[in-house]
Inverse folding.
């Protein structure tokens, strides 16, 4: 409850804009908020050779491996992988597994996967074995674009031989399953246009489905929250205040319980301010006793070429400490260097 209140207290007055653009050659293009950019003097053959030497050197040269992987874009890493395999006859993934250990191995392997392969890996890990990591399932499916979800489903089937929908149905249950399957349809509105009339109608519908009725019509919440765009949902949250004494997030907290509550609350957070959602995830991973390395790797790798710059800024604003300072305190060694490298200049 306290984390829930703190999150909305900190961000409710500051929604993250979805339509930042910059004019390039007379045409508007989305602003780039990634911390990793393409290496300017890129040479896949040279990098593949350097990696091979670093892996084969006595004692393994982790500094060289880190320098190559962190300072190249994902597209460039895929070219390095291809050249490495062609020139050595061995897979880079297998050689890194043999050369590296522990968290440094995990983050390095994550960096050489394509975004879709990494997402498929995350979903597989979240659903395999005893228990299911519901937070990871929601984080991946609620923050990816329609195109990214379609590619995730294709790669998951290719890598693991199963339809992702079938896995979700097997490993989850009830309304939570319905919400995940709705997101897997990949038909969310991605327009930045806001329809105020629609927002007013949706706000009233949500009020009638929750606060104004005995019980809760969860299907209505799922239908609206998984199909509308971020800007449209944000307008709906504002309109909700005109039909209820509660904000929508508080209404969700009071009306729902368990996995479906956490899922829909996360969707609300993501719609309002996605970088702040990820900042909160990272803070929870390092706050208190122990560090959740899986979360650090998952968020920093997956957002490094999307919005990690914004996440770093939100982290400082929300928690009054830079994420780099927190990483320095909670991690060590070459693994720490990778994480700091992904966060960008401090």
């Amino acid at each position: 409850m306290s984390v829930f209140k703190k999150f909305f207290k900190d961000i409710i007055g500051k929604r993250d804009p979805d339509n930042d653009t910059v004019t390039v050659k007379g045409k508007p293009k989305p602003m780039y908020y990634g911390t990793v950019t393409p290496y300017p003097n890129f040479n896949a053959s040279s990098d593949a050779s350097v990696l091979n030497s670093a892996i084969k050197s006595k004692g393994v040269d982790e500094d060289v491996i880190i320098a190559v992987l962190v300072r190249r874009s994902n597209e460039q890493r895929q070219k390095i992988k291809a050249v490495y395999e062609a020139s050595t006859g061995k897979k880079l993934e297998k050689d890194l597994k043999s050369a590296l250990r522990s968290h440094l191995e995990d983050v390095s392997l994550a960096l050489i996967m394509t975004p879709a392969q990494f997402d498929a890996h995350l979903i597989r890990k979240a659903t395999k074995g005893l228990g299911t990591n519901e937070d990871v399932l929601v984080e991946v499916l609620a923050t990816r674009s329609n195109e990214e979800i379609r590619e995730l489903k294709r790669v998951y089937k290719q890598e693991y031989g199963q339809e992702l929908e079938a896995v979700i149905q097997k490993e989850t249950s009830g309304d939570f399953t319905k919400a995940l399957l709705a997101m897997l349809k990949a038909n969310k509105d991605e327009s930045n246009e806001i329809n105020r009339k629609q927002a007013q109608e949706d706000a009233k519908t949500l009020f009638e489905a929750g606060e104004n009725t005995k019980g809760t019509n969860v299907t209505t919440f799922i239908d609206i929250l998984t199909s509308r765009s971020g800007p449209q949902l944000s307008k709906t949250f504002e309109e909700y205040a005109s039909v209820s004494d509660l904000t929508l997030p508080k209404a969700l907290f009071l009306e729902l319980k368990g996995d479906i509550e956490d899922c829909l609350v996360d969707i609300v957070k993501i719609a309002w301010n996605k970088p702040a959602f990820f900042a909160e995830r990272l803070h929870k991973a390092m706050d208190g006793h122990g560090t959740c390395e899986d979360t650090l790797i998952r968020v920093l790798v997956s957002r490094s070429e999307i919005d990690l710059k914004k996440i770093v800024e939100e982290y400082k604003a929300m928690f009054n400490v830079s994420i780099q300072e927190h990483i320095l305190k909670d991690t060590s060694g070459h693994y720490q260097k990778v994480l700091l490298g992904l966060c960008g200049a401090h």
Notes: The chain has a mean pLDDT of 90. The chain is about 70% helix and 0% strand.
